[in-house]
Amino acid sequence: MEPVIPIIILALPLTMFLVLGLFGHKMSHPLAGVLGTAGMGVTMVLAYITAFTYFFSGNPEFIDADAHTRLQSIIFNVDWLAFTDSLVLRLGFLLDPISALLLVVITTISFMVHLYSNGYMRDHHGVWEKGFQRFYAFLSLFSFSMLGLVVATNIFQMYIFWELVGASSYLLIGFYYTKPSAVSASKKAFIVTRFADLGFLLGILVLSAYTGTFNFTDFTSTEVAEGVYRVSEGTAEGIRAMIQNSAAPMFMGASVLTWALVLIFMGGMGKSAMMPLHIWLPDAMEGPTPVSALIHAATMVVAGVYLVARLFPLYLMEEAALNIIVVVGALTALYAAMVACTQIDIKRVLAFSTISQIAFMMVSLGVARPEFHHGLGYMASMFHLFTHAMFKALLFLCAGALIHAIGSNDYTAMHGLRKHMPITHITFLIGCLAIAGIIPFAGFFSKDEILTATMGHSMLWYVWMSLVAGLTAFYMFRLYYLIFWWKEHKVPEGHHAPHDQPWTMTLPLVILAVVSCFAGFVPFGNLVTWNGEEMFDSVSFFTNFKALDWSVASISLAVAVVAILIATAMYKKENPLPAKMKNALPALWRWCHHRFYWDELYMFITHKIIFGCISKPIAWFDRHIVDGTMDGIAYVVQRSSYAIRSLQSGNIQRYVWVYLIGALLLGAVTAICLM
Amino acid sequence: MEITMLYYLIPSLIMFCCGVYGFITRRNMIAILISLELMLNSVDINFAVFNRFLFPGELEGMFFTLFAIGIAAAETALAIAIIINVFRVSEKIDVRDVNKMKF
Amino acid sequence: MESVGSIIVYVVIALALVVCSVLAVTTRKILRAATYLLFSLFATAALYFKLDYEFLGAVQIAVYAGGIVVLFVFSILLTSHPGDNSAKLASKKRLYGLAGGLAMLIVAGYSLISRASFLTATASGDNPVMEEIGMKLMGSGHGEYLLPFEAISVLLLACIIGGVVIARKR
Amino acid sequence: MFSNILIYFVIIPLLMLAGFALCRNDKQIRAVAVIGSTILIAMSVWLLVDYLALRQAGETAEMLFTGSWEWFGPLNICLAVGVDGVSIAMILLSSIIVFAGSFASWKIDDARHFFMWLLLLSTGVFGFFISIDLFTMFMFYEVALIPMYLLIGVWGTGRKEYSAMKLTLMLMGGSAFLMLSLIGIYYHSAPEGGQLTWNILEIAKNDAISQGWQYFLFPMCFVGFGVLGAMFPFHTWSPDGHACAPTAVSMLHAGVLMKLGGYGCFRVAMYLMPQAANDLAWIFLILTGISVVYGAFSACVQTDLKYINAYSSVSHCGMVLFAILMINTTAMTGAIMQMLSHGLMTALFFALIGMIYGRTHTRDIRLMGGLMKIMPFLGVGYVIAGMASLGLPGLSGFVAEMTIFVGSFEAGMKDFLAGAGSLRLVFTVIACASIVITAVYILRVVGKLLFGPVQDEHHLQLTDATWWERLSVITLVVSVAAIGCFPNFFESLIKFTFSPELFRAIGL
Fold it and tell me: Is the ipTM, as predicted for this complex, more than 0.90?
């Protein structure tokens, strides 16, 4: 494939960022909006072309038609920084099933958000939000970074863009920079993910120090032609041998490879908000809602999943690392689902739901094994990534519409909005049905496959994850009813009633709702698998439907329906049931409501321990002990100079005395010596 | 009796010791200067004496004395100018009072 | 063997030298001190004559006795009132000074006398002729003193300027 | 002598000095400063191009543009000059910062004398970087240090006398050690009784200094330069000194002068005494490792903008020395990159702090807030500087730090696998941790200073940057971004210096 289109895909958002960032303040608001949106639109079209070419052209660069195996293809790879002869940091474009998939997801959601923001970043009177151009510049920067991340050809390139998405996320969360809560949320997000990135970096260092390479293809694949690779465990076995043959394969009881993979996964935990590094994501909702939809629901937060998927053949070699992923994922999923049941802020509910859903993807990756249905978990994870991006972005954009209309994040200010905002109502409902896993919406298929894969791995985690799936349905419908039903909405005197939004906002909602309805039918098994092999011989619209394992599907469907029914009973009409339940389990409710006090714990660690017990004493030590020593030396010198100063009194008669005594002594000594 | 070198050196030594005594004990700056002259003078004598008794053929000692006298004259003139100046400022020529420029 | 006259002259000169020196530092009247200094300078000049350094003696009288002492007297007259006595010295201070001076005298005198054998040389040689002195002062060869001569002239010039600058009224 | 381009790096500042003396008003002074520093930049670019062309043509000598003119025969002191990639990088850095510094001090009081001292300082800096004769190098080193005293003492703010005195005395203390070791090197530069020499290249070529003497001279030399490189525990001059210095001086000091320390450690201590460096590295690794983390932690709780930056400099400069001590090509390349990067971004920081201080008249972050709204240009500049400092890809900090980490980790791994202890490895991990702490203090400042509500309503009347301030900031930002975006160019420029023969004694 000619590198022109891929280069434009990366260059266009960057150019948009530079243009809007440097000259945006001189542009009119609509121009900046149109420019940004159009740029993203072009990028989206190009990404579609690329993905379409990759998946369906049958080009031998991309697919080994005989073996029905999709290949990895390096479109271009430019040396950027040569650390040593072998450790070279390159910037390139790797096209393979998951990067093609992510290209589509990112550009789609990003375009929707660009479009949507044209309406959202303006109040009811059409007054533009201050810094509107800046907003589009940052969005473009983010899109650039995220695209660079997913097409990375080597782990260091990924790290570079990983940092860049972190920074653009920081800028976007802190978009309302005069709001202290937004500032502290952005700071928190950056620092927590930075901490995770430390692990990522160390993992990269360990891995590269042993293997002498950064390239993904060297880790996971064998080369079949110039620039074309095929994922296989064989290469990975070679790496394992390399590591085991080196002199120190073990470190603190675990193999070096395990260490490297766990450290890299730590980076993924940070970005993907896995417990215990999840605390930044709920706060990140301080950013504008479109940003939450783009970054904190659909794209950046799945980077961790993407990272694990990218290195999946390596992870396959270390059972321990995969088990850690499963445990972390499962705990996070349950935790986030429980917390989501008690939150008041609708964006926070969605944030916790995002955490929970990403944890689903992680678990799915962790349980994936090649011997079970060609690595079904891997496929399911990517599938869920795709569908989740669509319906979660939809939900966030709906939430944005609600917030835009009401001016509050709180569902207590909403209640019974279904009549005022019908389009939002319908699209939100579709999103809820999709995430709850109701057939035939998108979430049903992907979640069902995750559960199937989990069951193939272990019954315990299957039951666990099914429970979480039920909780998911429950809290989403709780939210849905509390926003749109519960009791009638009363419009305060002097306010006009909330209403649906302009077309720029409605259109993305409708598009995403449609996608959420039908995304489940995409035959993912033939497009994205861990080693590129196609799962099905032939595909049709109903491939996924036919491939369902009904024993799992029916159970999960039943769980979802029951959960929805409970939610309906509790929240459809104003009634005392929720309060009763809250009183029945006060401790649990309190812990959930306060998110299990993780924030307080972190506050304690950062403020009390790091600032109070490390930084302050160090600063004190520096000022008083280290600097005090230096000052002390100066003081001693000064004092002794004062002490001997009187010798140099300027009294010439005293000098003569000293001279005389000296001369006499000298004379006496001479005399004695000569005697 | 032969008047040897020793006979010249002894008075010169006494003169020098007088100068030392005066320099140490006096407070009047002019008196200190006078003591200084005494010491200088005794040294001059020594130069001349050594020249005459030890190296009668040469004139180094004499010239040294000659130059010493010239320098002493210059030094005295300057010292007195300073003393008068100090006196003009402080109305005193006690050496203990002249410590404004110390440190 | 010296002639008796020569010995007498020597004794007179030496006595004058010693006595006037002692008086110059012990008298409490500053003007008297200057006078005693004058006498001891005269005695020194006499000593030079005795040693056959006539030119030196003449310079001593002209520059020292004539020039410097006059300066002293003027400055004394400028800075003190007639009849002023310097404050009586504290006996402690005088004692210390005396001890110091005497100690110096003893040590140096002892080392002189203990070298007496070396110091028994007798005077010889003639009074240098003026012409020789002049040639030596103006020559630049070995044992000739043009450079110091010029240096001292510069010094004197500097001294004149310095004196004028320092003493000038503001 | 005058056919050698390097000489002009000393001559032009001196000519500028003379020019300032002749100027009659501030306008002319500024004109001289701008023209002179532009010429310096142009010359360093020219030098760079020339150098690369020569290298391209297959020139393999360690130093190019060499020349040596005897200065004091009996001690064989020469004015010997020569440059390699590292020196050129440093010269480029210095000229950029002098340029930016001239604009940053556009409206300084008593401009004539200020610029004269500043240019004297630059003369020393340039002289230091072009010299390959130890004595001349030391002389220029001192020339660079002394004007600092006056610049801080006269044009500074706050406790300027104290700070100036402390800074000068501590650096002089360091240079006393340095001088001892340089003289020691001189007297051991010809073990077989040949002509003693001060010339670095000759000493290195002969591998002259015996191992026993290396053990004695290396620590002195490293500490001597380390004081200027703000090595723990000799760094305390830096916070006070920077806090009190005027803007351009802070820029030049943190940007260039502190690099003299790192450069000297590399060029003299490591280059001439590699065996001792290898064997004694552990002592200084511990000290510099502490510097890195310690500086970062200290910066977390400071409230004065300049203190924060000074401590962050301690951390970053610690990283430079730390990487040099790894004795690994990659890490050393990273160290030089870090010098470049830190020089530029810290100069940017100090320029911005100076500009902010000039408006708000306070540097206490608790008394400021929301400045982004009031002075967006300076705010954006500050955020960019902060991002460079915490290692955002695309800006210089990332490139330098990553090169250091990769190199150090490699060195540490080599040690570890060879059973030579895990000190390097452990300290590499500790140094890596500094990227998190850096993020903490940078974001803390950015959050408090630029974001949030406006703290003081008097600040609402303040204006944004003037054109000369913008020029100064833009110059630095562009340089920072250039290194961050095209690192391979700089890496390959620097890397050639680390020819394997250089450290053959220890088998690098």
Answer: no
